[in-house]
Structure formats: structure tokens, C-alpha cells
Amino acid sequence: MGTMFSAGLFKVETEESVWNLSSSQWPGFKIGSLTCHVCLSGQKHYPEKLRVERLDNEEGLRMTWTFKKAGAKIVQKITSRPKHLEISSFFQNLSTRAACLSELTLLESAEPGETSFGTRHGEARVYEDGGYWGLVRKLSRSPKPSGETAEQASSSEIQGSSQVCWEVYNPFDRMAFLAGFLTFERWLGMVETKFKASLGVIGWKMGFDAGDVIVDPRETVKLEDVAFMLGRDPWLLLEEFGNLVKERYCIRPLERPPISWCSWYPFRLSVSEERVLDNARIGAERLKSLGLKNIQVDLGWEKNHLPSSYDENEQFSHGLKWLSQQLEKMGFNLGVWKAPFTISELDTVAVKHPEWLLGDEKEKPAPYWTWFWKPYGKVYALDLTHPGAQNYLREEIASNTSNTSGSTLWVARVTRVYATGTTGES
């Protein structure tokens, strides 16, 4: 083993087919035996060969992973930046045939004892994010409560995952390590951990569900960029990571964040135009000086409470245009919740045009969820690659937009749809 690259707080050492990440500033920190893998056409492949080169004009390394049996290659460039270590990656299909890329892990350490987050690292705190939720837990404690005995807990496997950003803080060493995805151009990155009391960390990886993307022969695909950060203040690392993403995407924070009232939390499906206006009057009297500007009507205004409906129900008998005009007189915008890609089995679209809905290898259309609220039932995902579904969406949105005033803000629930038929929402 030789030290191939050492800059800033991190040190990279390579072996014949893996590499290790450590730090001179945190002696107990190590993520070892790092490799990568791909799933092509349902088969998992690990690289047979690793070639390491120094970068010519930058401080860093280039790692080329060759998957000979799969006919593929992953090239990763590790570069030292002022506040972080950055890894940019590419996937190359070396075959003369198209490849179906279903899963890709950029970094994976799966050898027990090869990864450590310092002194008594089972007690270290881990920050995880799930889009709709965030939590801090001990590395050795399951994110979900369990009724295990002490003996069962020592032998059980604790798993955790985080979207985009993951951080561990060791209160005994007073050091923190952050791993995050700097980009999310095509895929949503995940960081996953596995811990067992008797063995410590038995798995740590960064990657994503590639969604069965077809990669043409000899095609090169850009993957998501990764950042590693290390320091004594975990809050500062999170803030600096946010700044890196802000710089990457040229995000300009608003001088004043938008302040809204949302109907979902007090009223759920019993929301009505009268209740909206009553709360808007209170807001105009008491909260305008604090910046209240948007009055959002969440799920509950749609005909039959269908998430994809664009027609108002009897609780909004005057219509959204009238409501937006009344709110505008008070100085407010109307925000309207919509789930345009979520199609209930009770919707006429599902009955008349099942070909517009996503399916999988077993059935088409394939339900991906059961709607929790009235009218209940299965829900499907609209196939946005189908011309008929595209035209339907254009016509419905154009028709409903014309029925609201210019001050209406549309708040859409976006459904991420993968080729396998699975979905997630944000």
C-alpha cells in the first residue's frame, strides 16, 4: 500500500483493487476497501481491475474501474478542493450492444472492520434525510423503534439511509464527516449504512437506483458528483455543503423567504372556500406585517377529492378564480395543491385510457400505492412519455389555469417515476 494522494484533511491510499479514505486530523476515521459496482440487465458486476493515475493539472487522482465481463468501465476523478474532496464519475458502455443500467454504486465499503468513525463509533450521531423527514440517531440504533432484547440487538443488523446528504459526528473525538451529492441532474443519490454491534460498521455506500436507463453502445454517461467534508463543527459542515450546492447551481436565496398558510394541517379534506377566506381575514389582520403572502389550498378542493382532478367540488362552489380574486383584494396570492401525475383508479383516465399509465414487467397499468384519504383505492402514475398522456396534461392545466386569476400559484406534488414502475414523491 502506498500513499497516492494527500491534501487538506484527507488521505487516499490505494491497493491492488480498492482504495481507502482516512485523515491525519482524525486518527480513528477510516472508510476502507472502497470499490464500486453496477447492475446491468438485472446482474450485479464488480470491477476486475483498477488503474490509478495522478492528474496532470490538478491535485488528485483518476481511478479507472474495468468491468471486463460486463463490457463496461467507470472512471472517477478525485480532486482536492479548498473545503472538500470532490469525486466526479462517468459510466462507459464498452460493449457493441446497448446496456440496461438499473443500479449503480459509486463508492462501497462492505468489509467488516474496514470502516470506522472514531472512538466508540457506535455511539456516534448520524444525520439522515428522507425528503419529507430528517432525523439524528446513534449509529448503533435503528431509525425505527424495535422491541428486541439486548442479546438480539447485539446480533441484529442496523440499517439506515439518507437522501443527498449524510453526516456522522463523534462526540468523543469531536469530529464530523459529511458525504453528500453535489449534483442531482438525473438521479437522486443515496447514502446507506449497515451496523452490527458485534462487528461495527459492516457496510457503507453511496449510489442510486439508475431506473433501467438504456446506455447505447460506446456511450459515456455522466454520473452524479460527490463531496466529502471533515471538521469539528457538524452544523458548519452542513452549512458549507449547502453553500457548495448553491454555488454549483447558481442559487440566489430570496431576501425574504415566502410565508404561507396551508389548509392541510388544520382542515384536511374538510377545507372550504369559507374556511379559507375566514383564515385569510385573520391573516390580513394579524400576520401581514410578518410577511404572510400566500394562502395555499391543499388537497380537498378537487371534485370527488381525486388528486388528479382539475374541477372544483361543492366546497368551492364559486370556483378557484373567484377565490383567488377575493384573496387578491386582501393582498394575498392563492396557492393550489396539485398531484397531476397521480391517477386514482376511480378517475376516468384510468378507466378509459389505461395505456396512459405506467406498468411493469408483470402488469400494465401497475398500481404503486393505495390512496390514504377519500376516496381511497389504488393509484397509478401517469406515463409522461405517452403522447396521449402529454396532450391530456397540457389541456387540463391550460383549461384550469384560465379559470384562475394571475395571482394564483400552482403547488405541484411531483412524482418521480422510474422505468420499473416504482415511484417516490417530493
Structural class: alpha+beta
How much helicity do the residues have?
Answer: 10-25%
Instruction: Give the domain tally.
Output: 2
As an assembly, this protein is single chain
Mean pLDDT: 89
Could you say which overall geometry the principal axes of the C-alpha atoms support? globular
Q: Which ranges are low-confidence, i.e. pLDDT below 50, for 5 or more consecutive residues?
A: 413-426
Beta content = 35-45%
Measured distance between first and last alpha carbons: 44 Å
CATH architecture classification name of the largest domain: Distorted Sandwich
| Total count of strands | 29
Number of helices: 7
Please give the largest β-sheet. Answer: 10 strands, antiparallel
Instruction: Supply the CATH class of the largest domain.
Output: Mainly Beta
CATH topology of the largest domain: Beta-galactosidase, Chain A, domain 5
| Rg measurement, Å | 25 Å
